[in-house]
Amino acid sequence: MNLILLTRNDVDDAGLARVRDPRRLAHLRQVHRARQGDVMTLGLENGPLGRGQLVSLTDDEACFDVSGLDQAPPAALPVHLVLALPRPRMLARSIEHATALGVKRITLLHSRRVEKSYWQSPELDPAKIHQHLVLGLEQARDTALPVVNTARGFRPFVEDRLPSLLEGRRGLLAHPGMANACPRGLTEPVTLLVGPEGGFIEWEVEQMLAAGCEGIHLGERILRVETAVTALLSRLF
Amino acid sequence: MNLILLTRNDVDDAGLARVRDPRRLAHLRQVHRARQGDVMTLGLENGPLGRGQLVSLTDDEACFDVSGLDQAPPAALPVHLVLALPRPRMLARSIEHATALGVKRITLLHSRRVEKSYWQSPELDPAKIHQHLVLGLEQARDTALPVVNTARGFRPFVEDRLPSLLEGRRGLLAHPGMANACPRGLTEPVTLLVGPEGGFIEWEVEQMLAAGCEGIHLGERILRVETAVTALLSRLF
Fold this sequence. Notes:
Two copies of one chain form a homodimer.
Chain A: E1 4-6, E2 16-19, H1 22-30, E3 39-44, E4 49-58, E5 61-65, E6 79-84, H2 88-101, E7 105-109, H3 126-140, E8 147-151, H4 154-165, E9 170-174, E10 180-181, E11 190-194, H5 202-210, E12 214-217, H6 225-236
Parallel strand pairs in A: 1-3, 6-7, 6-11, 7-8, 9-11, 9-12, 10-12
Antiparallel strand pairs in A: 2-5, 3-4, 4-5
């Protein structure tokens, strides 16, 4: 944790935030070796960040002074990431990488080569997803919580949701063998679509290109989803 | 495995390669659902790759015809990666990411904020490192095995080895707060130095800059080592 992320619910009227959950308390003690009086980097979920004092620390509560938080979080990436649902452990890491890199909108998509059992994984539980988002924010010293939703049918996604995701945004479909190399250093809004292990099937590629996406590739190497997501985001922006 | 990687030792004089280790045999059966007669993507370690037939498959041996392999592996990245030794699980993943992206030379470096216990990890066993290199090659359809070595003292590394690593190569030190943003789309040879969790200490940064490295940063977000390595390589090349 490069930042202690606090929620509005943690904060009382006097500008004090009380942390009581075991994960953050254990991390404060073991990694930060925090002691009463320490000044640490704190952030309010979807709010400002800055330096604040650990006013008190007991066995079951850490109390922070958050009255002085006045910095804006780092800039977000102008991207909506549409990711074919990866297998559970890959999903967790991909969400953490993408969040740390500044992605604020993620849609998890079904496609032919996504194993149906992945949709039953406990990793898709909103509380688990929230946990990975928080880890990504704490890593990158960010406070703006990404929004994650799902699209459990490929055809309804392409027909009903993709057109609005492409309004005012450049749609980029990352897929091996596409004609153009991944562009670099973009500043415009992008909707980035990334396939599953094994890739989108030909029909799916055709549907997304027909909807207005441009096909892009990262070269002849085939990358794991989590490597590809980080490599694409880092090269695009 | 997007490629079955075979060693020279696997190959006999008749151009047949025999695979007997349980990992590859299990993967052939369970993931590839391989059957006698199948034509698959094969590669010879540090040699060519291409399509070849699975001539026979028994409980304890798969035999491939490698006489037709005639393609060169994908281009390597012109980079020597010097990585402060990450904690063991992060090391394994960082090596796989870097190998899949095309890095061919990796030096694992000690620095002040590397926990000394990491040097005792079984993950540093050459056989374990080799395993992660092979996984990275199989993922990316590459055959050229990276060379990994260690530098267990920071000062001897900077004084004795870094100068020759910078001969004819641009030295780039990735560190938060450096003056210049990470450059994009380089084609010249680079030596890229990446610090541990918590970063290089100020004295170490000064030593590397004095040796001729340029400091670069990836923005105000603090990334995990494995995310940073992929993000740097993807943006640089």
